[in-house]
């Protein structure tokens, strides 16, 4: 096994870290200090980073990130001058940057090749991590402990680690998977509505009423849905209607129970037992739930907890402690302390060689594989996909 390179000297109090979350709604940037929890300030660049034939556009990301970083540094310096941070007054040094991006695993080649030098030149950054957004979601939800996170939105992905390697389940998009996610639930609800419209078995008059209220006449739905390029989002927009009907409609309740089963199966495929893992206590692992899907509340959460207790006895089911932007800051702070314990991987969590992130004891394997089949022995394959929630 190879080991990561030694880190630059430890960053002292008063130096900054940057966390970045790049997704479909834009680029979020958070500035923190090495010795303080949480962000000092955050900002949003509302334009999503462009993706082209060469993957994620590194230049477009930098066009937004660098002005945002300088603005945050200026605001923090002004606060320090005003005496709000008079103790250990910070310099403008940025000790580490961690960037989590949707599509990083499959579309991040330009980021991995261009950002290290550009950020070193512009901000003097000596520590850099480039992560798939599922990894920053994990770091925000669980931290650096063994466990699993289920990120649910329009799609659904489960990601887990025993701190030796990553394990991934689903996140394959609405045509191949994302089972139990918002688009899956919405499509199942619309199917039940159309069955009621036709008089077929398995139909739901309640969901048919909601279809008409949201989309208009049922027979017009194909013409509204099929030409859309954002079909997953349109399907997912009907998922809250399914949840709203579940209390009184057995068909809607059954859809959510089936969704809960899919989600629990994905979590079980990736969640390590804490027995024998770093920091483990021999009990069931932690499963953190994050993302807008779980805002549907008890109609989905209650059957999900039942399924998780059946498939993962003893597992602790928690709400995410923080979001992906929190996770990016956590990764950046861990690098400054030489304590990044999450597994490195060429596409999932990439730390350039010249931006070493810790002591030789911090990692058992510098580039462990991602297992995408949920198996613990055999069938190993390297993951190249990104989160599709």
Q: What can be said about the biggest beta sheet?
A: 6 strands, mixed
Structural class of the helices, strands and pairings? alpha/beta
Shape, per Cα inertia axes = globular
Beginning-to-end CA distance, first to last residue: 33 Å
Side-by-side strand order of the widest sheet: 3-2-1-6-7-13
Task: List the defining traits of the structure above.
disordered C terminus; alpha/beta; disordered N terminus; 6-stranded mixed beta sheet; single chain; 38% helix; 12 helices; 389 residues
Please describe what this structure looks like.
- This protein is α/β, with parallel strands linked by helices and 389 residues long.
- 38% of the residues lie in helices and 17% in strands.
- It has twelve helices and 14 strands.
- The chain has helices at residues 58-81, 104-107, 109-123, 133-141, 182-198, 205-215, 221-225, 231-236, 239-245, 250-270, 298-311, 324-336, and strands at 16-23, 26-33, 41-45, 51-52, 55-56, 94-101, 128-132, 147-152, 156-161, 166-170, 286-290, 316-319, 349-350, 370-371.
- The longest helix has 24 residues, at 58-81.
- The protein is globular, with a radius of gyration of 22 Å.
- The two termini are 33 Å apart.
- Residues 1-7, 274-282, 356-368 and 373-389 have low confidence and may be disordered.
């Amino acid at each position: 096994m190879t080991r990561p390179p030694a880190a630059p000297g430890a960053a002292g109090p008063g130096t900054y870290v940057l966390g970045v979350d790049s997704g479909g709604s834009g680029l979020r940037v958070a500035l923190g200090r090495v010795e303080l929890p949480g962000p000092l300030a955050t900002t949003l660049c509302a334009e999503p980073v462009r993706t082209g034939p060469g993957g994620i556009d590194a230049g477009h990301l930098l066009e937004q990130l660098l002005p945002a970083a300088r603005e945050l540094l200026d605001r923090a310096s002004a606060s320090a001058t005003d005496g709000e941070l008079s103790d250990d007054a910070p310099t403008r040094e940025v000790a580490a940057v961690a960037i989590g991006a949707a599509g990083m695993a499959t579309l991040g080649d330009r980021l991995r090749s261009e950002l290290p030098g550009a950020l070193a030149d512009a901000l003097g950054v000596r520590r850099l991590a480039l992560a798939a957004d599922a990894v920053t979601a994990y770091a925000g939800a669980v931290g650096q402990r063994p466990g699993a996170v289920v990120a649910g939105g329009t799609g659904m992905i489960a990601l887990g680690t025993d701190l030796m390697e990553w394990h991934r389940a689903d996140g394959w998009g609405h045509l191949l998977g994302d089972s139990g996610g918002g688009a899956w639930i919405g499509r199942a609800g619309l199917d039940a509505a159309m069955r009621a419209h036709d008089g077929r078995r398995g139909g739901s008059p309640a969901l048919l009423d909601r279809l008409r209220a949201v989309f208009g006449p049922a027979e017009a739905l194909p013409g509204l849905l099929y030409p859309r390029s954002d079909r997953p989002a349109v399907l997912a927009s009907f998922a809250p209607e399914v949840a709203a009907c579940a209390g009184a409609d057995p068909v809607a309740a059954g859809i959510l129970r089936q969704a809960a089963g899919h989600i629990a199966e994905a979590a079980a495929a990736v969640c390590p037992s804490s027995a024998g893992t770093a920091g483990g206590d021999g009990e069931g692992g932690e499963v953190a739930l994050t993302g807008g899907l779980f805002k549907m509340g008890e109609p989905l959460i209650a059957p999900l907890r039942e399924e998780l207790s059946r498939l993962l006895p003893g597992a602790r089911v928690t709400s995410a402690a923080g979001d992906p932007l929190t996770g990016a800051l956590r990764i950046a702070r861990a690098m400054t302390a030489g304590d990044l314990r999450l597994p490195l991987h060429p596409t999932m969590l990439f730390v350039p060689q010249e931006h070493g992130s810790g002591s030789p004891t911090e990692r058992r394997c510098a580039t462990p594989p991602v297992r995408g089949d949920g198996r613990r022995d055999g069938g190993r394959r390297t993951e190249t996909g990104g989160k599709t929630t």
